[in-house]
Structure formats: structure tokens, C-alpha cells
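User: Predict the full complex structure for these chains.
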Amino acid sequence: MKQVNFILAVESYLVRKGMAVVLQRIPGASVVKEFGSVDLLTRYLEHHGMDFLIISDTLFANATDLYMNNPALLERTILLNRDPSAEDRGKKTRGCISLSEEKEEIISKINELLNPYFRDYRANTHGSLTDREKTIVRLLSMGLTNRQIADRLFLSTHTVTTHRKNIIHKLGIKSVSGLTVYAIVNNIITIDEVTSKHER
Amino acid sequence: MIHRNLPMCQAVLKHHQLLPLLPRFNIKLGFGEKNVEEVCRLNRVNTDFFLEIANAYLDEDYIPQTDLSLFPIGSVVAYLTSTHDYYLHIALPKIESKISRLLEGSNLSEKERGLVAGFFDDYKKEFLDHISREEDSVLPYILELEKQSMKEEPDSGFLRSLQNDTIKEFAQEHDRLENSLENLSKLIIKYLPPFEDFDLCHQVLTDLSDLVRDLVDHAHMEDKILVPRVIELEQQLTRKFNAG
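Assistant: Here is the predicted structure of the two-chain assembly.
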């Protein structure tokens, strides 16, 4: 899965580590580097790339040179405010988080930032089978072959095979028995409707 | 959290979840008064690496203290391989035999039994496939990558193969082996008629949930430590190659 790299620049060790813990909870987010001062941050950014910078308001105020030389950085900056009413004070950063916010709020803000990175990935993950795919999983669980499913749904076997590939890709489950159990626990089929192997 | 000066005995007594990790490092019990560092040294295990793995295993919010890129890829690969062995030779057979005992003594219909047994059989096959693919192609590639990156002049044949994006493919298709297992627990808890032998059923569910947790942790190791390291090495080598 894709990884989105964050850099943390916060003078307070405790706040920095706290932020890192929250980010660790978010799939795909990774903290690549932490800094307690603008100097070290500036030097690092001369040679390294990253996706987002989370910076405290104090360090942000000291980083005017950094932003002057690199205006595009604003677009990748998330401001960490001590004062919840501060918002981003017209600083045009990508977003801001307040120290008084709850974990869920912070996570949802960061997830929003990550969305464009994962649009393809998330659209393709668990739980988002299309109705047609659910129908196919259901018919597979009832013991039908690709050929029979194709006939039943007026599709070509080739199309059924493509659907099956997409289902495998989305769920990571290849076998019919695995798909059957998936279908039962996701209420796509009941145990009574399932055809067991020896009945086939 | 455990640290290098803590007596190993105390670490394991307090956190019995560490027990399955020990054989993966070839560490045996009978610690006496030795602390974590002494036990690691005696068993030729990199103490920092052990501490990172153990602490990450104990606490999902744990933040690595050591720069993980400092560990030789070889020790990461050795750890992953012995974890695979644990899954294949201990964890899965244990669950399999308990499930078959559970089914034997149950009032389940033929169909329901087939559902559970068939699920586990196929799961095991997919699991084996995944692991052999990893051990036959991905891990040897990674070890070779490390070897080549230490050479003055890497083999040109190997450099050409770098363009193939082996590791990115691997990271993308990283199977969600644990999701599927959780479905089995849900099936037992929610949809199947209750088993007579609750104690055995309890054991099966506990073993399943331990394995799921271990797999998540394992995938985390691969995604957060191994893959970024490999990408970094690939890039280094490509730069060197293009420069030369």
C-alpha cells in the first residue's frame, strides 16, 4: 500500500511524540522525521522530500525564511495551533490542527488530507463490492461455476472472470470457501442457501 | 515497555505475550539473573533490534527509539523467515487440529462442518502460497540487493533487474491474510449453532485472534520497515548506476 510521509516540527518533545502516536494510528501515514527546531528542519528539507509537514505555530513563526525560499511548502503544511481559535490566521496553509482537539477530529482531518492519495486504493478495499460483484459472490457460494454464472446473468464468461479478479483484488480472498464465509458474515447469503462441497 | 537493563525473566513474566517471539530469535528460557542485553548478546541477537520488535509487539502505539534503517536487512529477513516458520509449523497446525476436534464433537450439520473445514483448508493453501512466494522470490531479492549495494561495482545484470519494481509490486499485492481469518471467528460467534465444548471453542477463538494480531504485526514490520528500506536501497543503487 502507498505510504504518505509526514515530517513533524514541534519544539515540545511531548507534543511531538503525541502527534506521532496519532499518526501511527492512520493506515498509510508514516512519520519519517521529527525536528525540534527550524534549523535542523531547513537543513533536512534541502536534501529530502516529504508529503506533509506538521509544524507548531511557534516554529512556523520562526520559519519565515524557509517559506520565503520555498513558497510551495505552504501547500504541504499543517499548522499545529496552541490556541484553538487561531485557525490558520490567513496563512494559507493546507490545514490546521488545534492542541485541544480530540483524537477522532485529528484523525479525520488527516484522513481527509490523505484521501487524494488513496482514492484508488480505498475505492478498492474491503466492504466496497459493487452490487454486481455481490451477486457473483452469492452465486459462487451457491456452488455455481463461472459458466453457469455467466448464463444466469447474461454475461460472457470472460466478464465473470474479470469480476472474480476484481473481487479477489478487493477482498484478498481467492478460494470459493473463503468467499462463502465472507458472504455469510457480510449477510450476502445465509448458511441455508450455501451449497456445500459434497452437494455440488 | 521493556529496556536493555531489565532482567529478561521479569520482562517475560510481566509480558507473557513475548513468549512466541523468543524462538524467532532462537532465545531459550532459563534466563537466571541475566538482563535483556546479556541474553541477546549470548544468543548473538542485536539488542536494539530485539527491543524494537518486542516493544512494537507489546504496544501498538510504541514509537521506534532507534533509527530502523540502521539494522542490517539480513537480521530483518531472518526474523521474518523464522516468523513464517512459526506460522506454518506451530500456529496453523495447532488451530487446525483444534478445529477438527471441535467439529468432531459438535452437532453441526454436514454442510456447516464442510464450510468450516473447507475454509481452513483453503486458507492454509493460500497462506502457504503467499509465504513461498515471499521466501522464493522476494526475500532472496532483498538479500541480494543488500549484498550488491555494498559492492563497489554492482553486477550490471542485477542493476537491470532493478527496473522491474519487484518490491513495489510486493507491497501492493500484500495479501490481507488476516481479514479472512477474522471472518472465521465471526462465523463461529455469530452464525453457527453453538458448540457443545465451549472450552475448546474458546481456545480456537483465542488462537485465531492471537494469530490475527501476530499477522497484523508481521505485515506492519514488512510495510513499515522492510519495504521503505528496500525502496531506499533500490534508489541508491539506481542513482549510482546512472551516475556511473
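The longest helix of chain B spans residues 198-243.
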